[in-house]
Structure formats: structure tokens, C-alpha cells
């Protein structure tokens, strides 16, 4: 079997058809078994107990080898289970999704008070309100 690496180097591996993927990894990558990913014909060889014969790996076949950064990269992290709340399916509600509407409501209240209570707003406060409105408008259009 030929082991081909990402830097286009190859190594010849001697293995029997009865050998498993786990045996192949431990024989040629001792101590790095959890970091090594073996790919044959575009499929990741994840089952360590499968034999080379069952995978139809024969003489002079090429197995591509990739070393991941760490052992944790081999197993994707699952999200922590949160409290099951009465949310509608398909509507993920979080702090980020409600941020733009909340800022828009605060800006609308600012403009309401600016129009109805003009005597409380100085010129710098009005200029600041205009600047914040323009900034939030650009950010809102940029996000959506």
C-alpha cells in the first residue's frame, strides 16, 4: 500500500489484507493514531475495526494521509444542551438577533424626544443623535 501525504511524499506500507485500519495507523503512526486521518477513494476511513480486505484495499493502492492539529479536531464538539423554552421552530432567538431591532427602538425614542422636547436637546446632542443614526443605518444595511 502506498501512503501519500499532503506534501506529495509517498511511503510504502506493508500490510496484510486481514489488518485493520487501526493496526495500520498504530504500525505507521505510533502515538499519533488519533491525529491521523486516512482517506481512500475520497472516503474517510473512520471505522478502526474494518479490515483492508473489506475496504477493497489491495496491492499498490494509494491511501491519502492527513495529520490534524490536535486530537480534539477528530471529534467535533457538540453544543451544550440548553433549557427547552417555548420557541417557535425555525426561529432562533438569541441576543444577536434582537440587537438591531432594540437599537432601532432606542433610536426612534431618541428622535421622538428630540422632536417633542426640543428645548432639552443642545446642538451637540442633536449632532450626536444624527451621527449615531447614520452609523446604525449603515451597520443595519451592512448586516442584512
Structural account:
With 144 residues, this protein is of the alpha+beta class. The protein folds into two domains: 1-65, Ubiquitin-like (UB roll); 93-141. It contains three helices and five strands. It has helices at 21-28, 99-116, 123-143, and strands at residues 2-5, 10-12, 36-40, 43-44, 62-67. The chain has a five-stranded mixed beta sheet, with no helix packed on it. The chain is rod-shaped and about 90 Å long. The model is unreliable at 71-82 (pLDDT under 50). Its main location: membrane. Residues 1-64 form the Ubiquitin-like domain. Keywords: Membrane, Transmembrane, Transmembrane helix. It is found in: Membrane. This is TMUB2 protein.
In short:
It contains three helices and five strands; from the N terminus they run ββαβββαα. It is of the alpha+beta class.
Which keywords apply here?
single chain; 144 residues; alpha+beta; Ubiquitin-like (UB roll); 2 domains; 5-stranded mixed sheet; 33% helix; rod-shaped; transmembrane helix; Ubiquitin-like_dom; TMUB2 protein; TMUB1/2; Ubiquitin-like_domsf
Secondary structure blueprint with pairings:
Blueprint: E1 2-5, E2 10-12, H1 21-28, E3 36-40, E4 43-44, E5 62-67, H2 99-116, H3 123-143
Parallel strand pairs: 1-5
Antiparallel strand pairs: 1-2, 3-4, 3-5
Q: Total strand count, please?
A: 5
* Overall domain count: 2
CATH class of the largest domain equals: Alpha Beta
Any guess at the CATH architecture of the largest domain? Roll
- Please give the count of helices: 3
Instruction: Give the CATH H-level superfamily of the largest domain.
Output: Phosphatidylinositol 3-kinase Catalytic Subunit, Chain A, domain 1
Low-confidence stretches: 71-82
Percent helix: 25-40%
Amino acid at each position: 500500500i502506498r501512503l501519500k501525504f499532503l506534501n506529495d511524499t509517498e511511503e510504502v506500507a506493508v500490510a496484510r489484507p486481514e489488518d485493520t485500519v487501526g493496526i495500520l495507523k498504530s504500525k505507521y503512526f505510533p502515538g499519533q493514531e488519533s491525529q491521523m486521518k486516512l482517506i481512500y477513494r475520497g472516503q474517510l476511513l473512520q471505522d478502526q475495526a474494518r479490515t483492508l480486505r473489506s475496504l477493497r484495499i489491495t496491492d499498490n493502492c494509494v491511501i491519502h494521509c492527513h495529520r490534524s492539529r490536535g486530537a480534539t479536531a477528530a471529534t467535533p464538539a457538540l453544543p451544550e444542551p440548553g433549557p427547552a423554552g417555548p420557541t417557535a421552530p425555525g426561529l432562533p432567538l438569541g441576543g444577536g438577533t434582537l440587537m438591531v431591532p432594540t437599537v432601532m427602538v432606542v433610536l426612534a425614542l431618541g428622535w421622538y424626544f428630540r422632536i417633542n422636547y426640543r428645548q432639552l436637546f443642545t446642538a451637540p446632542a442633536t449632532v450626536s443623535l444624527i451621527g449615531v443614526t447614520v452609523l446604525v443605518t449603515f451597520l443595519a444595511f451592512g448586516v442584512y
